[in-house]
Structure formats: C-alpha cells, structure tokens
Amino acid sequence: MEEHRLIGFRHIGIIVNKMEESIRFYRDLLGFTVAQDWTEDSAYLNTVLGTTGERVRMAKLRGPDGILVELLRYEKNRSGELDLPFWHAGVCHMALTVADVGATWKKLSAAGVPFVSPPQESTEGTAKVCFCTDPNGIRVELVEIKAAAPR
C-alpha cells in the first residue's frame, strides 16, 4: 500500500481583511454554507504558521459538491508584514462551476459585485465564463459547462 499517495483535495485557504463581507459573498451570493467559524490563537496554530502571538479568525464554507473554502483573517499580520509565502504569493483565481452563468452574473451584478466582463463563450465552445472579485479583490471565475471539457 502506498502510504504517501494523494487521497483528495481538502480545501483552499484565502486570506481576507473583510471577514463578514466575505462570508456574505460566499454564503449568500454563491450558495456556500458555513461549516465552521472560530478564532484561534493556540500554540499549535502559531507553531504550524511559524508565528508568535498570532490570532486568526477562520471560517470554513462548504460548497454543494463538498469542497471547502477556508477564509482566514489574521489579526496581527493583516497587511502582510510577515515574510511568509502565505501573505505574498497565492492562487491567481478560483473557479466555480455554476448552473447558469448568465443568471449568476445578473444576481451578483445586481448585488454590486464587480465583474471583468459579462459571460463569454470559450474559444472551444465548451463553456461560458466570466470573472468577478470577492470583497477582498480575490478573482473568482464562474463557469457554466456546455459540453464535456477538462476541469
């Protein structure tokens, strides 16, 4: 048995400065449910992060397919003063599959969510796509799959 093998994707962590607005965005506008919401400043947390005296509010939100998005608000290092990769580099965007990208675009636009463009059909014709940003400026790609295509 291969003990080192990958068994699944656990979650994606997103550093936020606007926790309440972020929870509303992912929960109320995109349909995630809050699985956990807590604040921690334990020795364990500070050890695994390589910090001292840090306090982090964490909210895990579950998508309809089970994927977790973990929102983290650091109280001490909110603006990235600490020289850790957690604060300086990250994923350029997150892609979410939606049933109807046009309807989602209309709903989020009406709620004041900024978009790069209205939904566009992909070059190969297998999807309709648009990008918006969450309350922290994180890019979120919304994808409606029209035909079988790579994820």
Q: What can you see in these coordinates?
A:
- The chain has 151 residues and is α/β, with parallel strands linked by helices.
- The protein has helices spanning 19-29, 43-49, 85-88, 101-110; strands at residues 11-15, 33-40, 56-62, 68-74, 94-97, 120-121, 127-133, 139-145.
- A four-stranded mixed β-sheet has the order 1-4-3-2, with helices on one face. Strands 5-8-7-6 form a four-stranded mixed β-sheet, covered by helices on one side.
- Strand 6 and strand 7 (127-133) form a beta hairpin.
- 19% of the residues are buried.
- Mean pLDDT is 86; it is low at 80-89.
**From the alpha-carbon coordinates, what is the Rg to the nearest angstrom?**
17 Å
Tell me about the biggest sheet? 4 strands, mixed
Strand order of the largest sheet: 1-4-3-2
Structural class: alpha/beta
CATH architecture of the largest domain: Roll
Please bin the fraction of helical residues.
10-25%
CATH class of the largest domain: Alpha Beta
Shape: globular
Listing every helix as H and every strand as E from the N terminus to the C terminus, the arrangement reads EHEHEEHEHEEE
Strand content: 25-35%
- As for the CATH topology of the largest domain, it is 2,3-Dihydroxybiphenyl 1,2-Dioxygenase, domain 1
Number of domain modules: 2
